[in-house]
Amino acid sequence: MRSAFDKQLKSLNENLTTMGAMCEEIIALAAKSITDKDIALAERIPQLASEIDQMERHIEASCLKLLLQQQPVARDLRQISAALKMVTDMERIGNQALNIAELIKFIQDKKDIDMEYLRNMADAAIKMVTDSIDAYVISDVNLVRQVIKYDDIVDAYFVKIKNQLIKMIRENNVDAEYVLDMLMIAKYLERIGDHASNIAAWVEFSVTGIHKGVDHK
Asked: What is the DSSP secondary structure assignment for residue 136, as one 8-state letter?
């Protein structure tokens, strides 16, 4: 009986890892579509977002099956409960990336900010997602804390981008719509970091039984 449970739990972890990889891919695609103004890349994102939604439903069904058909001990119960919470944040990451991609049509032929901060911010968000899923699979609380701390880096890039946009406004060097669109893109990336922090907090719960939550400033 336990061997069958362990097999299903392993499958759950593999599916979570797959969903995490899909989240990494969609963030990377969204960021590159904006920084390169590549509409073809942006057009690939809705399908990937739909696949992330489907994976969320599949994992939720797997979790419920484990809860109803097996008899998980406390540690297993925490792990399954955490997985149910994690996939919600992962699905929202897909939605945020989709929101980013949808803004590409509004920034065409506009004077650009320096995209380096935006690329670095996206890379930092991807790292947070990757590490949060890895922390779940290997039950690593230290990695959880690194993820939550890394959110400060994502937030710092948001401030840098915001200040860059403010400088352009002061110099009367950009139109207001472009500023708002780029600020929203940075805000979506910041929210992706917040979702990764939430995932990490649920990983800590799965290991320790304590959910501290995350203070998103």
From this structure: H
- What tens digit of pLDDT does each residue of 195-214 get? 999 999 999 998 998 887 77
Per DSSP, helices labelled H in 171-209 are 176-208
Q: How far apart are the first and last CA of the chain?
A: 45
C-beta atoms surrounding 114 within 10 Å: 10
Query: Using the 8-state DSSP alphabet, how is residue 110 labeled?
Result: S
Q: Give 45-82 pLDDT, tens digit per residue.
A: 999 999 999 999 999 999 998 888 777 788 889 989 99
Architecture of domain 2-208 in CATH? Up-down Bundle (1.20)
How far is it, in rounded angstroms, from Cα 36 to Cα 28?
Answer: 12
Phi first, then psi, for residue 111 (nearest 5°) are: -65, 130
- Name residue, tokens 């299903």: 8
Residues 181-200, buried b or exposed e (16+ Cβ, 10 A)? bbeebbbbbbbbbbbbbbbb
Hey, is 171 helix, strand or coil? coil
Q: DSSP string covering 77-107, please?
A: HHHHHHHHHHHHHHHHHHHHHHHHHHTGGGS
**At residue 158, does pLDDT exceed 90?**
yes
pLDDT 10s digits, 4-40: 888 888 999 999 999 999 999 999 999 999 988 889 9
Residue 139: both structure tokens together:
């039950």
